[in-house]
Amino acid sequence: MNKTSMNRDSVAVVTGASQGIGRATAVRLARDFSVVVLTARKEDELKSTAAAVTEAGAEPLVCALDLREPQSAETLVRNTLERFGRIDALLNIAGAVPQIDLFEMTDAQWEDGLALKLHGARRLTIQAWDALKASNGSVVLISGSAALDPKPGFAAVAAVNAAIIALAKAFAEQGIKDGVQVNSVVPGAVMTGRRESFFQKWAPAHNLSFEEAVKKFPEEVGIARFGKPEEIADLMAYLVSPAAKWMTGTSVRMDGGEVKGI
């Protein structure tokens, strides 16, 4: 799709845009949207994403915010509307949940896992809803395969990701009345910078090289390889494109066959 198939002044908002899937999605959307609004906590990393967005053909707007803070969603939406007057797509990608054993997690760790990925996405979607109604826009919320295959060490991850799928369904039901399309994406094991850092530490502790560890994990979960952030970004771009406009209330899994159930 090229920009002639979108409104030439179309605006996409991407959270978690400083790295990983969020960064890849922001750069991918620059091919389809005139403006890509970038938010995350680290301004320096956002500026790097902004340079890539500019190179890809869109105007970036950097908004360094912590979406765990309740007022941040209002600030982000207000800044976007004051500058551009519209929001056509909202992609809620921010949020890493700690992988801690169910019986060892503290209440504070549990609450922190909920604060950004679930509550941040909920507040931001609500704040942007009127603008999305006006543009007949699209929302995507990112979940994860742990929602469909919970394990004790991933209990918080699974709970938050399952809640994201349910939240997207609820928003989609309202969106049918209001003209807003809402879907969720369920990625499997994607090789992001965060995952790479994990394996750099995990491999020596298990007497493995980094390369051996990266090969071992996909074999253990029954997939051929890790996914790439750009592959998830392409799916995100499709879901907010005119080609997918009748698709709403759907949870789309992209995990290389990791989840074996139907």
Notable characteristics:
alpha/beta; 2 domains; globular; 7 strands; Rossmann fold; 262 residues
Characterization of the model:
This protein is an alpha/beta fold and 262 residues long. Helices cover 49% and strands 14% of the residues. It contains eight helices and seven strands, in the order βαβαβαβαβαβαααβ. It has helices at 20-29, 43-56, 70-84, 107-135, 155-178, 193-205, 210-221, 229-239; strands at 11-15, 35-40, 59-64, 89-92, 138-142, 181-187, 251-254. Strands 3-2-1-4-5-6-7 form a seven-stranded parallel beta sheet, with helices on both faces. Helix 1 (20-29) runs parallel beside helix 2 (43-56), helix 4 (107-135) packs parallel to helix 5 (155-178) and helix 6 (193-205) crosses helix 7 (210-221). The longest helix has 29 residues, at 107-135. The model has no long low-confidence stretch (mean pLDDT 92).
Short précis:
With 262 residues, the chain is of the alpha/beta class. 49% of the residues lie in helices and 14% in strands.
SSE blueprint and pairings:
Blueprint: E1 11-15, H1 20-29, E2 35-40, H2 43-56, E3 59-64, H3 70-84, E4 89-92, H4 107-135, E5 138-142, H5 155-178, E6 181-187, H6 193-205, H7 210-221, H8 229-239, E7 251-254
Parallel strand pairs: 1-2, 1-4, 2-3, 4-5, 5-6, 6-7
Structural class designation: alpha/beta
Portion of residues within helices: 40-55%
Largest beta sheet: what is the strand line-up?
3-2-1-4-5-6-7
Give the full name of the CATH homologous superfamily of the largest domain: NAD(P)-binding Rossmann-like Domain
Principal-axes shape call: globular
H/E element string?
A: EHEHEHEHEHEHHHE
* Strand content range: 5-15%
